Amino acid sequence: MPTIVWFNVPAGDTGRARAFYEQVFAWAVKPFPGMEQEGYLEIATEGIGGEILPRAHPGEPITVFIGVPSIDEYVARVQEAGGRVVIQKRAVPGRGYFAICEDTEQNRLGLWKDDPTAG
Known about the structure:
Strand content: 35-45%
Number of helices: 2
CATH topology of the largest domain: 2,3-Dihydroxybiphenyl 1,2-Dioxygenase, domain 1
Order of helices and strands: EHEEEEHEEE
Largest sheet: 8 strands, mixed
Strand order of the largest sheet: 2-3-4-1-5-8-7-6
Structural class: alpha+beta
Number of domains: 2
Shape: globular
Number of strands: 8
Helix content: 10-25%
CATH superfamily of the largest domain: 2,3-Dihydroxybiphenyl 1,2-Dioxygenase, domain 1
Distance between the termini: 26 Å
CATH architecture of the largest domain: Roll
């Protein structure tokens, strides 16, 4: 059954956000391998992982990612149910693939497929 596997926290100042989440939750936050220059930070919790990333636009919300066996299949399911694709399937080299969708209420959600051969 698909479940939440990752989350993104957008920030105007990723260093300030890092300090906040480390102080409040004692989460381990470190530079995201290969994306250090862009300001991406990886979050390790005792549950799911996540990242702090530069905010793309004002009001951008936290996005959760749901692990699925096939991005293509679940993008089709989203569209059939009345949702839409905001960001088409993309690779995260060495990690997997994702797509960003909106549900029928304009809530954003990510779809994620682990695949260490992604490139």
